[in-house]
Amino acid sequence: MSMIVAMLTAAWSRAAGWMAAVGAALVLLLGAYLGGRRDGRTAARTATQERAARAREIRNEVDRAVDRSGDPADELRRDWQRGL
């Protein structure tokens, strides 16, 4: 009986070492996975902000161009009056 206990104790000590190594590997993989998710989320947020900034730039350019162009109705009235 004591021989069986000794064998089980030896087997458990070997298995405990392997389980600790596997557990450490799983913790490292989980940390890498979560870090990648965080980095991906940050990259997506940055890309969205860049697209929004570009859209604002384009909108501002269009607004400035419209402001410079003047009132089309005034231009039509002026042209019509000149034709008389």
Q: Can you tag this structure with a few keywords?
A:
94% helix, 84 residues, mainly alpha, rod-shaped
What proportion of the residues form beta strands (DSSP E)? under 5%
Low-confidence stretches: none
Count of DSSP-assigned helices: 2
Structural class: mainly alpha
Characterization of this structure:
The protein is mainly alpha-helical and 84 residues long. It is 94% helix and 0% strand. The protein contains two helices and no strands. The model has no long low-confidence stretch (mean pLDDT 88).
Short overview:
The chain is mostly helical and 84 residues long. It is built from two helices and no strands.
Helices and strands in order:
Layout: H1 2-69, H2 72-82
